[in-house]
Design goal:
It is built from five helices and no strands. By secondary structure, it is mainly α. The chain has helices spanning about 10-30, 35-45, 45-50, 55-70, 75-90. It is globular, with a radius of gyration of 14 Å. The termini are far apart. Helices cover about 75% and strands about 0% of the residues.
């Protein structure tokens, strides 16, 4: 079976998801707060599977925010996405 090719804006949106995920890994590694590390990993653990399954970036982000709401960390997730989008904008 041939793999479908992801193009255009979808690539940019997946890059943002990957930037956020990279930031999450750094945050988890840097924190001494195990509760914070667990929450971040719970919020973002489905992102790689969503990308691999070719879910839209919007659907993946919606799932992340659903989990963030459950853990009351929407503000931190907002900051992570805003930072990743700004870095992506500057890279252009």
């Amino acid at each position: 079976m041939a793999a479908s090719k992801i193009e255009g804006d979808s690539v940019d949106q997946y890059r943002i998801l990957l930037r956020v995920l990279g930031d999450v890994f750094v945050e988890i590694r840097a924190t001494e707060n195990l509760r914070k590390a667990k929450i971040l990993s719970d919020v973002f653990h489905n992102v790689p599977a969503g990308i691999a399954s070719r879910f839209t970036s919007e659907a993946i982000e919606k799932d992340v925010y659903k989990r963030a709401t459950r853990f009351n960390c929407e503000k931190q997730v907002d900051l992570m996405f805003a930072s990743a989008r700004e870095r992506a904008r500057l890279d252009r």
